[in-house]
């Protein structure tokens, strides 16, 4: 698993292998069981995450108890928590493991110390966040401009493994439709490709 982290450090920094290993040695790489909540809606975030293996679902509950899935994080994706340093900041969503997962778990309070010691680490984090933000913007633009069927077809192209990895009702929520609508769309698409 450390090879994945070294790949990212090499991609975004010029840290030497010895420095990379020192950083990796300070990270907490943890196996987390399916169904574990990493963060609950309403809690104050204190950790950040990087998925080495597995799938994490981000969702929120409205006042009526309806779940809305806003993202799935899979291999080599960072789960960014913004505004964690503001007082009385509460999470607007829950993060739950959809699969048994292996995560790098960072303590937000220790982050600054590591950035001071390894300034390229802060640069790497910024570049990763910029990349993730760009993807989020593209995903949002796609979501609002496409029909439900086009959204499903887009997922088949951009993130095909999600279809097998997450329950249909969660995928439907992520795509902004009911499970029944998703089922009809899947049937239509499968009939056309058969």
From TrEMBL:
It holds the Pfam family cNMP_binding. InterPro entries: cNMP-bd_dom, cNMP-bd_dom_sf, RmlC-like_jellyroll. Keywords: Activator. Residues 11-94 form the Cyclic nucleotide-binding domain. Transmembrane segments: none annotated. This is Crp/Fnr family transcriptional regulator. It comes from Gracilibacillus xinjiangensis.
């Amino acid at each position: 698993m450390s090879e994945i982290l070294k790949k990212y450090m090499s991609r975004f920094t010029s840290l030497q292998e010895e420095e990379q290993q020192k950083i990796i040695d300070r990270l907490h790489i943890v196996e987390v069981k399916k169904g574990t909540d990493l963060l609950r809606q309403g809690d104050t975030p204190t950790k950040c995450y990087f998925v080495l293996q597995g799938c994490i679902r981000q969702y929120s509950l409205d006042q009526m108890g309806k779940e809305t899935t806003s993202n799935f994080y899979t291999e080599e994706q960072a789960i960014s928590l913004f505004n964690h340093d503001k007082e009385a900041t509460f999470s607007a969503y829950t993060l739950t493991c959809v699969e048994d997962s292996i995560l790098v778990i960072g303590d937000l309070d220790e982050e600054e110390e590591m950035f001071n010691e390894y300034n390229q680490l802060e640069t790497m984090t910024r570049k990763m966040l910029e990349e993730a933000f760009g993807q989020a913007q593209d995903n949002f633009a796609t979501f609002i401009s496409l029909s439900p069927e086009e959204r499903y077809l887009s997922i088949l192209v951009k993130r095909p493994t999600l279809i097998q990895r997450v329950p249909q009702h969660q995928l439907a929520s992520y795509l902004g439709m009911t499970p029944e609508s998703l089922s009809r769309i899947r049937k239509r698409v499968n009939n056309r490709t058969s």
